[in-house]
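# step 3/5: fold
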Amino acid sequence: MRRARFLPFALAAALAACSDSGAPDTGGVKPPSALTIIRLPAASQPILNPVQSETCTKGVECELNIFFTDPLGGAGDGYLRLRVHAASLLKHPDGSLFQVGETVLITVSVVDPTQIYFEFQPSGLTFDPAVPAQLRIEYGETGDDLDDDGDVDPQDAAIEQVIAIWRQEQPGQSFLRLSGVKSESLDEIEADVLGFTRYAIAY
């Protein structure tokens, strides 16, 4: 049974400026020093494929997935899914438009196996705003201990209300919060993406 959604007033006030669960993006920007990226517990399952590549073709739907390892060493729970629709590919990194049938090798890498933090390549690839790619990241492996302090308490419930997917254009640069849809019952967040860079679940 999932924990009760209890939000102490003082903690709510401290975190309210970070995000709204499922609400439109309000332009939140934070430097790396002010952002907390959600961490995976030390006892979490290893990541099966911390680097995943797929060749995607304009006109054909494409999907990349990263999984945790199951107890038998195979693919276990999902961690990340990137879905590129048939019409999503817009521009190559050099700025030229994709034509139907043209391909690109897309690679997703885990930046740090202890954090929910990913890098997407090739840098400069862009998607059609009318048909964006869809990114889904799951955080269930945290076991609801979102502050990674060894227990599940009201502070974790408060953090879950404000976490979101954040985008970082280049290492060291500020992060931009994305609008997205969060499912607390499924422990996942989904957002549209228009280009390749770094993405994290954070607050």
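# step 4/5: annotate
The CA atoms of residues 52 and 108 lie 5 Å apart.
# step 5/5: archive (pending)
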